[in-house]
Amino acid sequence: MEHYFELPVTINGEEKYFKGRLATFGYVYKFYIIVDGQELVFEKDDEQQYRVLSEGVKEKGIDPALIQAIVTILDKLHDR
């Protein structure tokens, strides 16, 4: 099952919105979020922290601070 959403992220004092979708696979779920025209995949690691799975994030020039801001928001959503 998939659910579509917009994720608000505040970075450098500016609020941006990123399109995303939540896909569930049994008890596992992944967030697919579009950043700079690229779909990045976020899921929990063994320590239950979110991480980005998409390869080549650094090579494609996506700001690591933006990735961390997205991870922080996903962690906060999970804690609710």
UniProtKB/TrEMBL annotation:
Name this polypeptide is given: Uncharacterized protein
